[in-house]
Write a structure and sequence with these properties.
The chain has 162 residues and is an alpha+beta fold. Helix content is 48%, strand content 11%. The protein has helices at residues 2-6, 11-24, 31-42, 47-57, 61-70, 90-93, 97-108, 153-161; strands spanning 82-87, 121-126, 138-140, 143-145. Bound molecules: FE2/S2 (inorganic) cluster (FES).
Length: 162
């Protein structure tokens, strides 16, 4: 099982993920923390990695899958170091969020669900971010950008690239 994962992740990353699992394996209820920390290393949680975690912890893979799919924080597709989340809730949609997303994809040079060649960015469409008064809204990492003019999306990328 580990050999299969070693095709996707470097030995260094595998060692880091193993260390996380070992550190928390005896702590009751630590599955969420383990998934969070493993995802920090791998940048996503593919099904093979979920199975590996379950195997190492001696728990059913369905339990890991259940947690990984319940929380939107977890992703089963690769993510960039900076995830660009474009809100596509109603308030943002009517204020041209689709256009914002398309322009961001073009500027970054990446399709939705892919990671830029330098590994820096990925783009995701999300439901209402709860900041409708600032629509249209884009979140990059911890930073929120509101009242965005689709013509000026490049400014967002400049700010988060500093
Ligand atoms: S619809 Fe975008 S923040 Fe609510």
């Amino acid at each position: 099982m580990r050999r299969k994962l070693a095709e996707q992740f470097t030995e260094e990353k595998m060692a880091m993920m193993d260390a996380v699992i070992e550190e928390y394996r005896e702590i009751p209820g630590a599955l969420l923390i383990i998934l969070e920390k493993v995802q920090d290393v791998a940048r996503y949680l593919p099904v093979d990695l979920q199975r590996y975690i379950a195997w190492k912890l001696g728990i059913p893979a369905s339990r890991v899958y259940g947690v990984a799919t319940f929380y939107s924080y977890f992703s089963m597709v690769p993510r960039g170091r900076k995830v660009v989340k474009v809100c596509n809730g109603t308030a943002c949609y009517v204020k041209r969020s689709e256009e914002i997303k398309e322009r961001l994809k073009q500027k970054i040079g990446v399709a939705e669900g892919e990671v830029s060649a330098d590994g820096e960015f990925s783009i995701e469409e999300v439901r209402c971010l709860g900041a409708c008064g600032l629509a249209p809204v884009v979140v990059v990492g911890e930073e929120t950008f509101g009242l965005i003019d689709p013509e000026n999306v490049g400014e967002i990328l400049e700010k988060v690239s500093l």
